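Query form — protein 10092_t:CDS:1

QUESTION: What is the three-dimensional structure of this chain?
INPUT:
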Amino acid sequence: MEKEGIIQKSRSPWSSPIVLIKKKNKKLRFCVDYRKLNSITKKDTYLLPYIDEMLDNLEKAKWFISLDLTSGYWQVEVKEENKEKTAFITKFSLYEFNIMLFRLCNAPSTFQRLMDVVLEPALWKYAMVYIDDVNIYSETFEKHIEHLKSVFALIKNTNLRINPEKCHFCTNEMQFSEHIVNINRIKPNPQKVEKLEKLPSPKTITQLRVFIGLASYYCQFIENFAKKAAPLNKLLQKDV
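ANSWER: The structure tokens for 10092_t:CDS:1 are given below.
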């Protein structure tokens, strides 16, 4: 990472610990535990878009494009005076990051603000962005190509890079935030629903709270959800 300019040697008075997380393929992922840094960081209150509003905006669309930005957060450079705060210690040396990491508490808000500025001329007209996921939607194929060219030009002007391997172009169906969106229809992602159905019956308050939270994500697809969930929510109350 040092050769690639992602990190550099540091003389920072700050230092966060390294954490190695085992991935599904049994390889180790290098992470830095920024919980202590995040706890004393002044929070950025810039709001992320509401998923329900974004889904409503896709209702009339017939053509979809999903763009994925290459290592999205890593395309944002950390201000020079803040780099020392990202420092971490190894047995070889103390290092600090030159780029923004997703584990920093203000990273999502920072990147969302950036993308809102970059795509401002197209936002909510034919393009939407949720952090580093850019979606283009159109009612006709001809307009779709025009919209794609417009968004590409906006992204190119800021030197942001797109990962073509994770992009999906000119489709009639799109996966968006745990939902499947196609012509005149929005439905839950079947794979996510299957995982929800396979969850064991909650036996503790924590497990029940998790289950209700997951089910609530798809509440608009469940008839009388509030009424059905009321007995479960009551169990979360004290002295029940």
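ADDITIONAL NOTE: The longest helix spans residues 141-156.
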